[in-house]
């Protein structure tokens, strides 16, 4: 049942005519009719008088509307609402005026609040440049403004060269990297004996580490590390992308 239907039913239960209710509210008889038919809604100050005139709390007139709009209150909000209901009409009007003033004040603050500075991450020209802990001489990177297309957790970006990670990572495309720990199947930026590579990572239970090319036609670019092989391997970051199947 809508607000207007609840209003009309309660008015009739109390034996109050539209004209009598209009006099109590200080509005015209047609205004009350509009409230009941849903043509218009009473203003806040009229609502407070309406609740008193009909001897109901707000939940009575809005109860079905709350259900249809998934209305819910937290425990704190419910306690505040109960306190509001216990106030006399003048007290409730004061609360409404205060809340409206606070809302206007908040809107004015938001209007004058300076926009947040955009976040910038380094975009390295190649995986080799990503091996530096910080950009050197500004030669191998450019600042990249983080927009909606950049993953929120990205800490740096790298432009990939070559087709060994195609089709998932095309030659010349940009990948976004963070410093999260690698799990099997993740793609990372690695330094292998001084060479910088973008590869898919896998470590087996015996400690063997495999760096795979996603493009299996470039399997010749795969790298295998034995636990006692003496080769150096450093990971500079995890490429942010969905999990991929390991090569067979």
Write up what this structure looks like:
The chain has 248 residues and is of the alpha+beta class. The chain has seven helices and nine strands; from the N terminus they run H-H-H-H-H-H-H-E-E-E-E-E-E-E-E-E. Helix 1 (3-13) runs antiparallel to helix 5 and helix 2 packs across helix 3. The radius of gyration is 33 Å and the shape is rod-shaped.
- What is the second-level CATH architecture of the largest domain? Ribbon
The assigned structural class equals alpha+beta
- Total strands: 9
**Helix-strand string:** HHHHHHHEEEEEEEEE
Please report the number of helical segments: 7
- Uncertain stretches of 5 or more adjacent residues: 64-72, 129-139
Morphology call: rod-shaped
- Major β-sheet profile: 9 strands, mixed
Strand percentage, roughly?
A: 15-25%
CATH-defined topology of the largest domain: Umud Fragment, subunit A
Radius of gyration: 33 Å
The domain tally reads 2
Cα separation of the termini? 63 Å
Strand order of the largest sheet: 2-1-3-4-9-5-6-7-8
| CATH level-1 class of the largest domain | Mainly Beta
Q: Write down the overall mean pLDDT.
A: 79
Helix content, binned percent: 25-40%
CATH superfamily of the largest domain: Umud Fragment, subunit A
